[in-house]
Structure formats: structure tokens, C-alpha cells
Amino acid sequence: MFIYLHHPNALIACALVLAACCNAPALAQEPQPIQSVTVSSTRDPVDKSYRKMIKGMERFEREHALAPAATLRFRLLRRISTAKMTGITLRIAGDTVTVPVPVADDNSFVLPRNEQALREDAAVLANRKTDSMTWRVSVRTPGLLDGVRRLGDLRLECKAGMDAGLISNSAPVFGWLSNLLTDTDQVCSSPEGNYLFFAERPIYGVTVRFGTRVEALPFTMLYAAGDQTAETLPYCDCQVLLERSYYAPIWDRSWPDDTLVEFDFIDDQAGKTP
Amino acid sequence: MKRFCARLYVLMCVLMYVLMCAAILAGCATTPAAPPGTVVPIDAIDQAVQPGVTTRAMLLARFGATTAIRFDSGVEVWRYLITTPAGYGEYVVVFDARGVVARARRAPTVYRSPPQK
To answer: Which residues in chain B have Cβ-Cβ distances shorter than 8 Å to A14?
Structure first.
């Protein structure tokens, strides 16, 4: 445990606080002219980083072999029940640059590349409170039936999504800490990675199929593991998406990328399934 | 001043340590292992569960509580365990917002994560 205290970032944080505190009396002894600073805008702590989202797009390009025919879009999903999901506008906002980002009717969008916004470490801002929505990467191979996903697409969604910094599962005070302790390859290659995916509708069952091998995902891989409580749910970016959430066996290489993930939805034909 | 800074440094380290522990405990609290479901005889539960007829109260009275999750919509999903030659399978029941069985399925074999290499 003590080793974490020697993490470079932790030491830097300590040193900065320490330096600020230690310099405070000296500043008090030597009055300085008051300087004014104009703040043109403030960022929501969970605004999405343009640089990170571009990194997600670069990961998609590097590992396109996982889903050779797929395209990448970003997608906004309702996180809280009161979020209005129509008429959303997006923009990339840096210190001096603003770039509007068109949002499609399904609330998906493509992020344009802008070198100045990259240099200015811009944020991607919506005309909604950022934490009222869940942000995800969407990697889709064309031609699949409704209710069917391809495992290679999901693998790439995880990698691009993690690099893009879209997941906001932690309480804000611990957000920086979770960034220290999470890693894209760790999350996407481990059964404990817990990268949550969302189906289009409430899930009844999920089947994984490749050739003659067919297995059902257990209850513990649906509904964010089925153990969320009223206390923990606000810290999961699944919130109102809980009944649509699932884990896919993206870490299990015994399932090839062409494996199909098939959904049976709660509102499909009612009755008993053998 | 040096002594003050040294003390402050120690204090900051202790504070960091406490925050780290709290964060790790919070992480543990959000991802506990799912409680084991109640094991039931497959034939008995299959007979008892009739979509559109069987209620939550009826299943609770007959088979007891088991792993369950409730959504904002009022829909609930219960998971019972069934024994199979390969170990355990699961019997999943979906209740509509009125508390009546809407759908039910059994999975004699479910995906199990292979051991990590």
C-alpha cells in the first residue's frame, strides 16, 4: 500500500501543496500588486477531453483489424431519467477556438480533427450537464441484424472508449485516483476489467455464438453484475441504462473477433423460453 | 520553517494514505461478488412458473428469496440456480411492473470465464 505514496503523481501533488503552503507566509510578508485574471469559461469537472477523444480515434485506427469493416462514432446516451435527449448541441472549446460538432438524430457524432484545439487542450462540451449523459464509443460492422453485435467490434469499443476517457464511474473526488489506477489494456483484457456495454433495449438474455459453440451469458454478466444498489448506482454511468447493460467476454480470446453476441430483449415475445 | 514543512509533508502523506484506503474500500463496496442464488429443482420451478399467472409472492412463498434486481420501470429479474451434471445452471424469471411473470428462461450451461493465464 505504501508504495502508492511514492507514485510520481502523488509525490508531485504533495510537493505542489507543500510548496504552496510553505510559500504562503513569504507572500504575506512581501505584498505584491494585485493582478486580475479574466476567466472566459469554466469547465465542468467531467467535461470530456478533446485530446483523449482523439486518442480514442487513433486507437481505433491502430487496431482496426479487430473490426475491419466497422466505422467509429461517439454516442450520447441518457444517464439520468430527467435528461432531455433531443436538440443536443456539441462543440469543441479551447481557449481561443470553438468548433461546432453536428449531432445526428440518434445522438451519435463524429469528432473532427482540429490541430489548434489539440494544442489548446480543448474540451468537448454539450448543452447539457455532462454527467446527465453517458458517453460511449460506437464501433459497428455494417450488415448485422438488429439485436446482434460482433465481439471484435466490442473489443475495439472498449479500447477506443477507454483511451477516449469516456467512462465516468467514480465519485468525482476519486476521479483522478481512478485515472491513476486504470489502464486500457488492463480493463479490456481482464475479466475484472468491467467495461460496461449497453444494448438498444432492456435485456432478457444474451447468447454468445461462434459456429456450433453457443453459450448464454450468466446473470452476473448482465445488469452491471446485478449487484448495484440505490447507494452505488449514482456512481455508475449505467444509472437508467442498468437494464440494458452487460459485460461481454472481450478478454476471452477463445472467442474469435467474428463471434456474434445475440440479444433477446425483455419486450420481445413474452412467455417461457426453453 | 523546515520542521513545519516536514510535518506538513508527513501530514499530507497520511492524508493521501487515508484517501487511497477509502477509495479502495469504496471500490470494493461497489463490486461485491453476487450473492449465490437459491438452488431449486428444475422440474418444480418450471412447473410453478406460468407467464401471465405466477406472481412474485407465489414464487417467494414456494422457493424463497434469491438473487434479484429491480429497475426504475418496476420490472424485476430473479435468478434461481438449478443443478446440472456440469454443475449449476440458472433459471431466470422476469416480472412485469405488476409483479406478474412476463418471461422465464433456463440456461443449463452458462458462460464461465476461463482461468487467467
So the answer is: 9, 12-13, 16
